[in-house]
């Protein structure tokens, strides 16, 4: 009877104790390769290419950092404090305030359009979010390479704005100069009239004395 109890206890310990490397069966290496030049994100799970998605990185004036990162923290629905509480669903923060997150501006995917974050469609962001939840942050790498193309639309817009500002400044300068010249001319005319009046008065007095 004692032998039977010992046998049952040993068997229960073998069943309840996880085997070495059992966690590796359920967690896989997750790599997100983000090509900033091509504006594409390739998701590799355990060595197999699983997904390819369009992204939007930082547009002109807003840099998306390149390098190798790991997720710092995840937020199912984050609101940006810096940009008017803009919604950032399924946010995966990987470096300071930079994150991979979903967006409603799906028409802009495939070209730089963000303030520095990496945008995905809401559906793809949810998939990526759930993959990290499943495999763990320690098993995830986010690799950003290349350089985002220049956004000519925003560059042209910036140039137009700068041109308008310069023209407005030039008009203000000309108007200010005209007002200044007008004040100077007015003072000169006033002094001239005053001088003529004084001369006329003096001559008149002299004429009165001669009479």
Structure description:
Strands 3-2-1-9-4 form a five-stranded mixed beta sheet, with helices on one face. Residues 15-24 have low confidence and may be disordered. It folds into two domains: 26-150, Beta Barrel (L,D-transpeptidase catalytic domain-like); 152-211. The protein has helices spanning 2-16, 22-26, 122-135, 152-210; strands at 30-35, 40-45, 48-54, 67-69, 73-79, 87-95, 98-103, 118-121, 140-145. It starts with a helix and ends with a helix. By secondary structure, the chain is an alpha+beta fold. It contains four helices and nine strands.
Q: What's the main sheet like?
A: 5 strands, mixed
Q: What Rg do the Cα atoms give?
A: 37 Å
SS class: alpha+beta
CATH class term of the largest domain = Mainly Beta
The H/E string reads: HHEEEEEEEEHEH
Strand content: 25-35%
Measured as a percent range, the helix fraction is 40-55%
Shape: rod-shaped
Quaternary structure = single chain
Average pLDDT confidence is 84
The CATH topology assignment of the largest domain is L,D-transpeptidase catalytic domain-like
Q: Kindly report how far apart the N and C termini lie.
A: 159 Å
- Spatial ordering of strands, largest sheet: 3-2-1-9-4
How many strands in all?
9
Count of individual domains: 2
User: Helical element count?
Assistant: 4
CATH architecture of the largest domain: Beta Barrel
